[in-house]
Amino acid sequence: MLTPSHPLLDLNTFHMDVKAKWFAAFSSEEELRTLLADKRVAEESLLVLGGGSNILFTEDFDGVVLKNNIKGIHIVKETTDRISIEVGGGENWHQLVLHAVNMGWAGIENLSLIPGSVGACPIQNIGAYGVEVKDVIHTVTALDIHTGTSRQFTNSECQFGYRDSIFKREEKGKWVITKVEFTLRKNATLNTTYGAIKDTLDKMGISFPTIRDVSQTVISIRQSKLPDPAQIGNAGSFFKNPEISKSQFLSLKDLYPSIISYPIDETKVKIPAGWLIEKAGWKGKSFGTYGVHKDQALVLVNYGHAAGEDIKKLSQDIKHSIWEIFGIQLEIEVNII
Q: What is the DSSP letter of 242?
C-alpha cells in the first residue's frame, strides 16, 4: 500500500532527512506487480531503493519510492566443485557474503562489508580488492516496470564494465531486479594478490588462508579506513577510479613520481581517485556539517544535518580541482537525486 509523505532518513546511508511523496515496500514479484499497476506509480517519477547505500538525496523525492524487500537464498544447482544459488534482491549483500563464507562457498569473500542490497550489486557491478561481482553472476532476473513481465538477463547480456552495467545505461530505469543467481566454488581459489590483503595476512602469520581469513581480513581493512554509515553518514566511495592513457600517466609520473597506478592493458592504466584527491589537499577537510573523511579521501561524509546540495557542491569542487591539477576527469559513482 502506498503511503504519502514518507520519511527516508533511515533508508539512505547518507542520512539525508528527506521525504518521498509516496512510498511502499514489496516482498515478492506479485506485490511489485500490484504496485506497478497502481495509477499513481504509473504517473509519478519512480525510484527503487535497496540498501540506500549508493545515493545522495538533495531534496524531497517528488514521486514514488519503492523499497525492495524480496528475501530468500535457494540452491539452484550443485556439483562436486560448484554451487549455484538464487538470492532475493532485497537481501543484504554483506549478510549474503557471511552466509557464503559460513557454508564454505568461495568467490565473494573479497567483497565483504560492501554496503547495499543484492539487487543493487549487478547494477553497479560492485568490486573490491581485485574481485568484481560480475565474475560470479550467472543470471539476473528483473521485472519490467511498464509491463510487469519478468525477464532473465544472462551475464553477457548485463554488459558488465568497471562499476557499470546495462542497467546504468540503455536499460536504466526500466527494470526492478528481483533475483540474482550466483555461481560459487566449493574449492576456493583465493585472490590475495591485492597488496593490503597480502600484507595483513602476512602480519597475522597466516600463510595458508581460508575464505574466512580473507573475509575477516577485508572486513578489518575496510573498518580501519572507511567510516561506518551507522555512525557517520556516507555512501562509501563517491568517485570511480579514473582510467587514463599510458602516455598521460608517464607525463604525470614525471611531475609526481609517487603516483600510484594499476595497469589495465598495454595502453591504459587506472589511477586511484583517493590518491588524486588526497594529493590535491582535500583529505580530512571539514565544512562544519560535512566534508571529506580523514582516513579515506574517496569518502564524502555527513557529520549531521548536512544538506545534500552541500555535499553535491563539494563533489563538484573536488572534480574541478582534480581536472585543474592533473587533467583527469573524475566520474561520480554515487547516484545524485
A: P
Fold of 73-185: 3.30.465
Contacts of 283 (CB under 8 A, 6+ apart): 277, 292, 293, 294, 296, 297
Catalogue the long-range contacts made by 171-174 (C-beta closer than 8 Å, 24 or more residues apart).
173/46, 173/145, 174/144, 174/145, 174/146
**Angstrom distance (rounded) from CA 140 to CA 24:** 23
For the whole model, what pTM was predicted? 0.89
At 116-126, the pLDDT tens digits run 999 999 999 99
pLDDT at 195: 66
Residues designated catalytic? 163, 237, 333
Fold (topology level) of 233-336: 3.90.78
**Cell 561520480 appears where?**
332
Best mean pLDDT range from 13-22, 162-171, 217-226: 13-22
C-alpha cell at 178: 528481483
Topology adopted by domain 3-68: 3.30.43
Strand order in the sheet with 290-292: 233-237, 299-302, 290-292
